[in-house]
Amino acid sequence: MDDEVFRALADPTRRSLLDALFERDGQTLSALEQHVPMTRFGVMKHLRLLEKAGLVVTKRMGREKLHFLNPIPIRRIYERWVNKYTDRWAVTLTSLKRQLEEEPMEQIYVPHQVPLVPSPGGGAMAVFEIYIKTTPERLWQAIIDPKMRAKYSFGVEVHSEWTPGSRYLASVPGGIDSAKLDITEGENLEVDPPRRLVQSFRALWSDEVKAAGFSRVTWEIIPVGDSCRLTVIHDRLPEDANPELYGGWPMVLSGLKTLLETGERLTTPGSLLYSEHNVQIDNQS
């Protein structure tokens, strides 16, 4: 998949189309034609290549076919080909800075650069898509199993009966020196294993995100050969939603793919957000 992403990004026209979707996501073919000096057929050809690489996702909204930027493949390219080569220098320079200035380590900042678009049901939404080499049953289990979920979702476990109308609570277990930390809560609106899960979603980790109220998250699993296409739609968000509410999905889904395909945990700063809690729990068991 990396080769297809690199080939897609190598063309300046395709990069321009991605830039256009970054500026305003959820555009029609006619709207995207305005950004590049070529025929409609040429734009369609470039968009097909971007879709094949997973960089663009399309959704039907009434009579219109909208195109959405999918940041997950670019995030994986960064983690695979950029982050590991820069981490060593970054850690060295940060350590030198602390020694010279005798300052404590600053908290890691993870930027959330995911565009929102209008949601058909009102408010705003973000759409994510990723291909994972696994079975629908194994992917479904990874979504609902608390211990597996914690390995790719910032250390957060999700507990529920997983029946329509049941409640779920996502939290970080308490350790020896830390209390249990609730992260999200909601209701399972649709439960159709191993194909579709629709949940209401309310963030709990700060007063600011709590004030946003409930939004909705839809998980859709479609088998594709020996793999699965997982689409996550986070909609009914406030139009001015705090990026913390939806910006972590690329890292979560990248961690899910890494876990199912390699058995390893993703070790980006965001993925290790609650690692101290996990270490304490592991030491107790």
Describe the structure in your own words.
This protein is of the alpha+beta class and 285 residues long. Helix content is 39%, strand content 26%. It has helices spanning 2-9, 12-23, 29-33, 40-52, 72-101, 136-144, 146-152, 207-210, 249-262, 275-284, and strands spanning 56-61, 64-69, 117-118, 124-132, 157-160, 167-172, 181-192, 196-203, 215-224, 227-237. The strands form 2 sheets. Strands 3-4-10-9-8-7-6-5 form an 8-stranded antiparallel beta sheet. The chain starts with a helix and ends with a helix.
Order of helices and strands: HHHHEEHEEHHEEEEHEEHH
In one word, what is the shape?
globular
How many helices in DSSP terms?
10
The structural class is alpha+beta
Q: Uncertain runs with pLDDT below 50, 5 residues or more?
A: 88-94, 103-111, 276-285
Percent of residues in helices: 25-40%
Overall mean pLDDT stands at 82
User: Which range does the strand content fall in?
Assistant: 25-35%
> What is the radius of gyration?
20 Å
Distance between the termini: 38 Å
Largest sheet: 8 strands, antiparallel
Please count the beta strands (DSSP E, at least 2 residues each): 10
Neighbour order of strands in the largest sheet: 3-4-10-9-8-7-6-5
Give the SSE map.
Layout: H1 2-9, H2 12-23, H3 29-33, H4 40-52, E1 56-61, E2 64-69, H5 72-101, E3 117-118, E4 124-132, H6 136-144, H7 146-152, E5 157-160, E6 167-172, E7 181-192, E8 196-203, H8 207-210, E9 215-224, E10 227-237, H9 249-262, H10 275-284
Antiparallel strand pairs: 1-2, 3-4, 4-10, 5-6, 6-7, 7-8, 8-9, 9-10
